[in-house]
Amino acid sequence: MREKYPICPECGNRWVGRLTAPGWYFCSTCTVEFKHDDDGTIVYTITAEGIRKRAHRKRRQSMRSQELSPT
After folding, report:
1. SUPFAM superfamilies from the xrefs (predicted)?
2. Domain regions of the chain by residue span
3. What pLDDT score was predicted for residue 54?
4. What is the C-alpha R_g of the chain?
């Protein structure tokens, strides 16, 4: 029987990978490691790479909005 993989709580991505730690999963899109506790709560950590990606994404969005605004 196949294991049912969860959806990423951060971005909603369905293509998550399993980590070696039991119960932990990894999302390659937003680089978040997460797991579901016994009571159903979601525990997750953002990797250093994910923090860099987020900062870069925010910077790109702000630059793009400056380019689009007429001066």
Report:
1. Zinc beta-ribbon
2. 16-65
3. 57
4. 16
* pLDDT tens, residue by residue, 45-70: 777 665 665 555 555 556 656 665 55
Q: Are 58 and 50 in contact (CB under 8 A)?
A: no
Q: What are 66's two structure tokens?
A: 């400056």
State the Cα–Cα distance between residues 53 and 29, nearest whole angstrom.
10
Strands 24-27 and 32-36: antiparallel
Q: Which two tokens stand for residue 1?
A: 């029987």
Q: Which residues contact 53 (CB under 8 A, 6 or more apart)?
A: 30, 31
For residues 59, 62, 65, 71, the Cα torsion angle rounded to the nearest 10 degrees is: -110
